[in-house]
Amino acid sequence: MAKLQVAIDLLKIEDAIALATKVSPYIDIIELGTPLIKSEGLSGIRKMKDAFPDKLVLADLKTADAGELEADMAFGAGADYITVLGATGDATIAGAVKSAKAHGKGIVVDTIGVKDRVKRAQEAIALGAEFVELHAGLDEQAEETYSIQVLIDEAARAGVPVSIAGGVNLGSIAAVKQSGVTVAVAGAAIYGAEDPSQAAKELKELLEA
């Protein structure tokens, strides 16, 4: 059964916790987005984990160097997962994986900006990542030609555990699920909704259908 992850790109941890409180009954993984991490630092991770000890907390660090050190910092603050950029070197991913194994946690490799996401996903899993995020960032999604179908097709081809982030919503989640993802990541579809709790509930129901 695929997990549902909420990506929270708010800038204050109090607002993020308030949103997470509304949607937590339907969410498996709570992601502190990179802007939130940059705004609140490690203490934001700790506050979120303290508020939701029974949920998996993902810190979207997008680590590009010093993999083991940054992973140690985030895991020490209560994160269950951290992201490492797929565009970085294998040694950085391997260092983060070493830290994850020591803490009993997981590394997610984020393919934002990677040209061949499928190939890098396969390499990242071989290096010990728990799953790989096939990710079209906000800037890529804003391009006129963007379609989530590209990620859906890549997920079906990858043959390794992946998540999809980049336009997961009520209209696309059935196809996202069909592609065989481990995790579906919804951001704006939840935090931008008039009723985030209802949006999360509907997404979860479609994911479990």
Blueprint (SSEs and pairs):
Layout: E1 3-8, H1 13-23, E2 29-32, H2 34-40, H3 42-51, E3 56-63, H4 67-76, E4 81-85, H5 90-103, E5 106-110, H6 117-126, E6 131-135, H7 138-141, H8 149-158, E7 162-165, H9 173-178, E8 183-186, H10 188-191, H11 196-208
Parallel strand pairs: 1-2, 1-8, 2-3, 3-4, 4-5, 5-6, 6-7, 7-8
Helix pairs in contact: 4-5, 6-8
Pathway: One-carbon metabolism; formaldehyde assimilation via RuMP pathway; D-fructose 6-phosphate from D-ribulose 5-phosphate and formaldehyde: step 1/2
Catalytic activity: D-ribulose 5-phosphate + formaldehyde = D-arabino-hex-3-ulose 6-phosphate
Keywords: Carbohydrate metabolism, Lyase
Give the gist of this structure.
Residues 3-203 form the Orotidine 5'-phosphate decarboxylase domain. This protein has eleven helices and eight strands.
Could you characterize the architecture of this molecule?
This is 3-hexulose-6-phosphate synthase. It is an enzyme of class 4 (lyase). Belongs to the HPS/KGPDC family. HPS subfamily. Keywords: Carbohydrate metabolism, Lyase. Pfam families: OMPdecase. The structure is a single chain. The radius of gyration is 16 Å and the shape is globular. The longest helix is centred in the middle third of the chain and has 14 residues, at 90-103. The chain has helices at residues 13-23, 34-40, 42-51, 67-76, 90-103, 117-126, 138-141, 149-158, 173-178, 188-191, 196-208, and strands at residues 3-8, 29-32, 56-63, 81-85, 106-110, 131-135, 162-165, 183-186. It is of the alpha/beta class. The model has no long low-confidence stretch (mean pLDDT 98).
